[in-house]
Amino acid sequence: MAATSRITIPVSGMHCAACQSRVQGALAQTPGVSDATVNLMLNNATVTYDENEVRPDALVEAIKRTGYDAALPAADTDTFQEQERQDAERAREVHELTRRTAVSLSVAVLTMVLPMVAMHAAWMPWLLLVLTSALVFWTGRHFYVRAWRAFRHHSADMNTLIAVGTGAAYLYSVAATAAPRFFAERGVAPALYYEAVAFIIGLILLGNTFEARAKRQTTAALRALADLQPKRVRVLRNLREEDIPIEALEPGDVFVVRPGERVPADGEVVSGSSAVDESMLTGESMPVAKTKGDRVVGGTINRTGALKARATTLGEQSALARIVKLMRDAQGSRAPIQTLADRVSAIFVPTVISIAIATGVAWALASDSPLKALVAAISVLIIACPCAMGLAVPTALMVATGKGAALGVLIKGGEALQRAHEIDVVVLDKTGTITEGKPTVTDVVLCAGVDEQTVLSLAAGVEALSEHPLADAIVRATSERGIERARVRDFESVTGRGAMARSSDGRRVGVGNVRLMERLGVAPGDSVNHATRLAAAARTPVFVAVDDRVVAVLGVADPVKPTSRDAVAALKGMGIRVIMLTGDARATAQAIAQSVGIDEVHAEVLPEGKAEAVRNLKHGGRHVIAMVGDGINDAPALAQADVGIAIGTGTDIAIEAADITLMRADLTAAVDAIALARRAMRTMRQNLFWAFIYNVIGIPLAALGLLSPIIASAAMAFSSVSVVGNSLRLRR
Amino acid sequence: MSSNDWILVLAGIAAIVWVNWYFFFATRPAATAALAEGRQEIEIVVRGGYDPGIVRVKRGVPVRLVFNRQDTSSCSEEVVLTDFGIKRFLPAGERTPVDLTPDKTGQFEITCGMSMLHGKLVVES
């Protein structure tokens, strides 16, 4: 099977469109390259190529032959470094917040206790002023600074509310401390609100600390993935093992992995054999046997034996880096459900300030007490919490994508997640999705006096030139039986039907399905009965015709994956309609569908018809269709579906066409993905509901004077913590 | 109601009007990105907001917005241009370039990850 990869190679020395087209042409003519785009502005070439046919260094050579200079992208670890920096920043933030919170709450307790101990001491207001000022000008300083900066930009945020609220209380108290007589003369008590200011600052900082800690946990899965990347690697250079930093590793270097060590980079095993634990990437707990020619993925753990492997993709291109990057992009993406929260956030703070002003005026009129007016207005400012709304969706998204990665499910972003939760129809490709995708020839039914050896030899001769998975089975059948393949010429592949060629003695050999026989004008005769019998036994019948006679029918079986049946049952249990889509003959498809419990089968669909079939299903009603298939052959159908779910493996992540990539080639991962999406959306809705309700109830209560500013600050601090906490429940 | 009460009510209304005008309608300083080597480039300082808050660019010419984050508030750690599918982490104290090529004219929001800070990208033909 083709293993499509994409690489971006920096090219230097290009100055004009002519240079560009020369490089592009040279690349396009390189065998194995399916697409090459050269960007003059960015000075690079983006090449889509088949890993089995051409290696990246050959692409570099091809560019160099045109006279321009090129080098493979350096094995830098940017993705990981950026992740590390972000983590370090978060850690610093948590540390600093913890310190400030401890100081603020201690001071707050003092401001409450001291007046009780020495109630009427004349110096008491001044002591409280000093203590509270320490909080306003040190631990809580950032609230005011940030609020002021935002104000200068005509914007307002949570800091604005805290700054205005505590600022008003603080200034009132300072005035009452400095000039109590001024207040008394006007019939207003020179009340002090230092305690409220101190507690508000302390409690909000406490809330921020919890929030920062919880937010760190939402990215824990991502951090765990980034930590998988070993920092050093042992390479074989000049027949000696050298220990070098991972950045110095170059494609083509041979590196050594001892048992128990992490595989340092993606590579191809050149010697040794071992079992490798890939669970951190695929969620699959069984170690995978690796031997010469197999691919290993950086970050996985080598369990039993020593391996030597040749480095292939490094740095940004490595599987692990791509997964980390995909996850980071996903965690940073936005779910459409957030639009509402965004709209509210945008007008939230000025609206709350307006409500606070109105509250103050109303209380001043109603009670004739400026004090009550001030307290109620401050409560409104303090209880309003735009943060909970802002956190409701992103935190759930982050935890869900992290959880997905642990399950071997990569979700492209918030939009994909949101659509995935609505899936009510799942279309499954057969080969490689329901079945193992490794067909083998199980039956050879001879029809017309030709022996098995000749039939297989001719058939394999033709099929050796074909790329179809069934072709591979026939070719393997000859090599396993030790049969030499016939030489053929004039090969022609007929999409959706089969292939044909001429044998060395000039006979026409056709290998394919019944439609190929029709096309060749060969009467299938008796062979149709054999085909029917094979199909009923879930074998794919392959006709072999020589000239105008069918000489044999081969039965090719592709074993059903052991988990497929359970997965289909689970999907049905979730109320999802399951449909199988395949190019196979109807009878074969039916037999396989039956064995896994699928009732609805669309068989004999040509490859290009798959996307069409998915589109037709959409027209059939208001359904959200998911297509599960491999990311390469089924790419158009995946793109056509509302949610494209690509089945990949750790090494081969064809992410581009898919909304969701399953790292374990197993349908239960698709079930996990949909279940996770449903849970995540439920969490987002809960979060949004609580964040809204909290404000909708809290603000009127505060406006009615039923909440003291201190209670309001506690409620505000914990509303955002509870939202993050609810999101973290998704990890279970 | 006494005349004092009326003054209070009017002052309250005036304050509310001013708050809403200031945050929603007041014009903000705009800047035009400088064109150099086929690219429009401008530095936007992130410090409790985006400065300049409004950036004018030409359609069809690559744009580089260099976000200089001089702010440690986690609110500003990400910049989002929804219309261009861009969301970028901005390390504190660093200049982070964000490249895009506007292919449509109009006004596009620049916001932080939580939609609290606002700026505008005005694409003109």
Describe the structure concisely:
Chain A is an alpha+beta fold and 732 residues long. Chain B starts with a helix and ends with a strand.
Number of strands of chain A: 26
Q: How far apart lie the N and C ends of chain A?
A: 38 Å
Largest interface: A-B, 48 and 44 residues
Strand order of the largest sheet of chain B: 1-5-11-10-7-8
Structural class of chain A: alpha+beta
Radius of gyration of chain B: 18 Å
Unreliable parts of chain A? none
Regarding quaternary structure, how should these chains be classified? heterodimer
Spatial extent as radius of gyration of chain A = 34 Å
Structure description:
- Chain A has 732 residues and is α+β, with helices and mostly antiparallel strands.
- Chain A is 52% helix and 18% strand.
- Chain A is built from 26 helices and 26 strands.
- In chain A, strands 14-26-25-24-15-22-23 form a seven-stranded mixed sheet, sandwiched between helices. A six-stranded antiparallel sheet of chain A has the order 6-5-7-13-8-11, with no helix packed on it.
- In chain A, strand 22, helix 22 and strand 23 form a beta-alpha-beta unit.
- The mean pLDDT of chain A is 84.
- Chain B is α/β, with parallel strands linked by helices.
- Chain B has one helix and eleven strands; from the N terminus they run αβββββββββββ.
- In chain B, strands 1-5-11-10-7-8 form a six-stranded mixed sheet, with no helix packed on it.
- The longest helix of chain B is centred in the N-terminal third of the chain and has 23 residues, at 3-25.
- Chain B is elongated.
- The mean pLDDT of chain B is 85.
- Classes of the chains: A alpha+beta (732), B alpha/beta (125).
- The interface between A and B is large, with 48 and 44 residues.
